[in-house]
Structure formats: C-alpha cells, structure tokens
Amino acid sequence: MPITEILEKNAKLFAEDTALVEINPKVPDTPHLTWREFSLIETSPGKRYKRELTWGTFDKRANRLANLLLARGVKKGDKIAILLTNCIEWLPIYFGILKAGAMAVPLNFRYTSEEIRYCLELSDSSGLIFGEEFIDRVGEIIGGMKKLRHVFYVGENCPDFADEFEKMTGFCSAKAPNVPLTDDDDAAIYFSSGTTGFPKAIVHPHRSLVHSCLTEQAHHSQTKDDVFLCIPPLYHTGAKMHWFGSFLVGGKAVLLKGVKPEWILKTVSEQKCTIVWLLVPWAQDILDAIDRGEVDLKDYDLSGWRLMHIGAQPVPPSLIKRWKERFPNHEYDTNYGLSESIGPGCVHLGVENIDKVGAIGKAGFGWQVKIVDENKNEVSKGTVGELAVKGPGVMKEYYKDKKATAEVLKDGWLYTGDMAEEDEEGFIWLVDRKKDVIISGGENIYPVQIENFLRKNSKISDAAVIGLPDPRLGEIAAAIVQVKQGETLSEEELSEFCMELPRYKRPRRYIFADVPRNPTGKIEKPKLRKLYGADRVVAMQNEIK
Prior knowledge:
Number of domains: 3
Helix content: 25-40%
CATH topology of the largest domain: Rossmann fold
Number of strands: 27
Distance between the termini: 66 Å
Strand content: 25-35%
CATH class of the largest domain: Alpha Beta
Largest sheet: 9 strands, mixed
Low-confidence stretches: 28-48, 534-545
CATH superfamily of the largest domain: ANL, N-terminal domain
Radius of gyration: 24 Å
C-alpha cells in the first residue's frame, strides 16, 4: 500500500487525538500561529509556545495542499521541494505532496543558496515550499530557476516572488484527491548527507517508506500510548523514519525546536514522552550538564521515558556506560542505516543486547546483510570488509546518475561503503567509512576505533581522527580533540593517555578545536581535511625541500 493510506487510517480511527505537538522554548516575542487549529499556552517562569494538530486536521491539511498542487497543474511524478526547519507544518506538507502523486524533495535547511539551487536543479523540482528563514537564500536564486513554477511561502510577510501558503491552501477542498497510488510509485527524493562531496539524489518508492514504518515498529514496539520526541531535522531520513513507528500506530509525536539539555528534559517531563531519539552530541551534553550541576534530574518527571536510542553515527560505548549510570531504567538501542536504505533499521542492535554496546547489531526486520571483500566475496567472521544490505527499503536509484547507481547497487544488494566485521555471535561492528580508512606505513588504521578510545578520557567532549599526508609513512593519524567546558588538557597528557593504543594507532598529531558535525550528527571530515590538510601539505613540502 502507499504510505498515504496510513495517514488516512489514522484520521479515520483517531480523528480527535493529537498527532503532532510543536514546542518552541526559545520564547519568541510574538507567537506565529499560522494555522487556526494551533493552540497557545503559557507556563511559568516564562512563555513557552505550543502548537498542536489532531490526526483529522493533519489529514485535511495534507488534502488541501494536494488539491492546490493538482489545481496548479502538478502531475504524477513531479517533484516538489520542502525547505523548512522543523515545524508542525512540515509533515502535513510532506504528505500533501505525496497525496497529489508528486514526489517530496526535502532539503537540508543549512544549505547555502547555491546548494539549494544545485539540489533543485538536480532533482528537476518544479515546486518549492519554504519558510521565513530562507527568504534571502531563495531570493538570490529564484530568478534563474526556470523550471520552478510553484513557489509557496510558509509564514508571515510573504515575499513578492512567492504565493502565501496558508491563504492558497485555505481556498482548497479538504477532501482526499482522486489520485491512484501504488507501492511502486516514486514517493520521495532524499539527498545524501554530503560528507564525502556533493549530495546525491536518492529515489525511494512508497514501498520503501512503508517498510520503514514496519521495521521501526517491529524494533521498538510502539503502541498508541507511546509519545515520541523528535529533535533531529525532518528533512533527513533518520528522524522521520524513527517517527514512522509511531505514525504506523497513531501515536503522538512532539517536535522540539532546540537541543539544550534543560529543554529536552523539560519537554520529556511535560509531554510525558516515552521514546527519545538522540544524537551522540546531545546525549553527551545532557550527561555533562548533569555532571556540572546545571540540571537536576529531581526537577523533572521522567518516569514514562522507557527508551533512549541513538543512530546516524558510531556510538561510543563509554557514552552508553555513563548514560546507564544516570538512567538505569532506560532501555537502550541503536540502529544502523543510510538514506539509500531509507534511514535507520537495516541493521539493528536490539534492546535485549545491552551487553553488545558498540556493535550495530544484526540484520533488521525484513533485511539481509553480508560483509564482502574488494571482489564482492563474503569474508569470514572477524575479517574487516564492506557492509552490504538487501531488503524492501533499498533505494530505487540515484536520480539521473546511472553510473553512481551501478557502483552501489548489484543484484539487489546495496554496497554501503562502510567497513565492518562480524563477531562469532553474528553481531556486526562498524569499523569506519571505506574512504576514511588511513593507510600509514602499510597499516590500515580505522579512525572510529581511535575516536572511541579518545572519548573515554573524562576531559574530552568529542574527537575526530583524519589522515594527513606524511612524506615517510604516506599518511599519519591526526586527532582533533574538543575539550569539555571548564577542563584543560595538554598534548603531553593526551600522548600519555594514548600509550594504551598499539603504536601504529597512536595519533601523530593533536589539534585542540571544536569537532564540526552536520545536523544528523556525523563528523564533517571533508571540512576537517580542508581546514588542516593544506597546512600539512605545506609542511610536508617544506620538509622535502
């Protein structure tokens, strides 16, 4: 079935139940209530704005947009881009596009104007729905976008190059449009995170999205009574596909606009959240804030919080050990996935496998996995190779890129580019990105292993390891170390700490600086290489001279 049928089912069965809540703790001077169904509440000590949407209204809003697009001449298979920060409008817009038979094209809200142009052109998008944060960026490129025929603005003070979204949808019918959809119809284009270069456009049909719903619910047993707290950006497959487990059963989701530890804990307390998906830095921040006494857990009612899970990046075992010390009653889980496999869940640890923290798990619900060598032959257990996955959630293709598609899709298997190994019990351990492996003096060095080791140091907040050119060894491991607030750490201390590592794995250079991460928590290693690689190249050239 197409994924839109799940929304229609929820609207029929749970019309008056809350589907979405948006919490904005940033205390704006003036509330922006763009839809009549939203409510405004105030709580001491200051104002906190909350907007709510029922399942019935969710479905009607999606229908109104679908009918608007159809009235504007949008045809089945047309692409409509979404450029919004997390907000209560986001998901009804996404489903409205799908109900029109069009393809939703979520865009990273951190894109520059030129990156927005690149993605719109690559995806052949004929429509764009954007928010007030992006007026300047969209305004810079709109004049040259000849294919962009439908431009809608969400918010107040609509610019003259767009139509007002609220006004236009208000004129349209709230009845479901008559657009036949099937499992095989294309539903969305997602862009790869771009950590290895320009993002690729990833095509997924409705079948992929529905399987993501089934996989997530099978892994975490969501019921109608669960409340899912969503903090990561909705444009990315990770956040939305974790929400899909709650979506499948008609559960409530809370969208929190902010990542401060006190905001997260306060929202869990007030909204009675039961499931929270965090990125590594946010979990780290919560623990550090507790350690510094900036938040007191006794101030919050966290009794309903049953599951904390982390994905989108390797999870340091030391972090989960700390977390379980503070939250001993929490179930912990992690999922592995990528946008090409419709987000999380193709590999899954399982809450019952807490003794395997550090592993990404085994094949997820409905998935197959294998680890292969450079010739695509399966390797023996304990041998590092490339992880490949197969299942109903594998992408259809990279849009307009047959060569790139053929490189990663072979006989239904998706070759992920991630290096991994399987232990004797069948659990898979992620080693590193294939492109991130450092070859130093003929030895393969996997940065994730060193990063996990460095994060065991109580003074280190975050760490990243990259390879830098070296005239003798070819490459050396360089560690970018982010020291915790209020702590001091010297290079001598780090060198002593790393003596526990095998000699060839010890970083040869330490850089004390912030570790940049993208909105989904992945370390931006191309940025680090650009920042520090050139310095090393110059130094190497000077040494040769």
